[in-house]
Amino acid sequence: MQNEPLAFRMRPRNIREVVGQQHIIGENTALFKMIENGHVPSMLLYGEPGIGKTSIAHAIAGSSKLPFFSLNATHAGKKDVEQIVVEARLAGKVILFLDEIHRFNKLQQDTLLPHVENGSIVLIGATTENPFHDVNPAIRSRCGEILQLKRLSLEDIVQLLQNALNDEERGLGKYTIEITEEQLNKIALSANGDARKALTLMESVYFASDEEDGKAIVQDHIIDHLAKRIGVYGDKAGSHFYNLLSALQKSVRGSDTNAAIYYLAHLLETGDLVAVCRRLLVMAYEDIGLANPAVGAHVFAATESAKRLGMPEARIPLANAVIEMCLSPKSNSAYSALDAAIAAIHEGKTGDIPSHLRDSHYAGAVALGHVGYKYPHDTPIGTYGGWTDQQYLPDELEGTEFYKPVIAGEEKRLASIYEKLKSFKKD
Question: Which UniProt keywords apply (predicted)?
Answer without folding.
Answer: ATP-binding, Nucleotide-binding
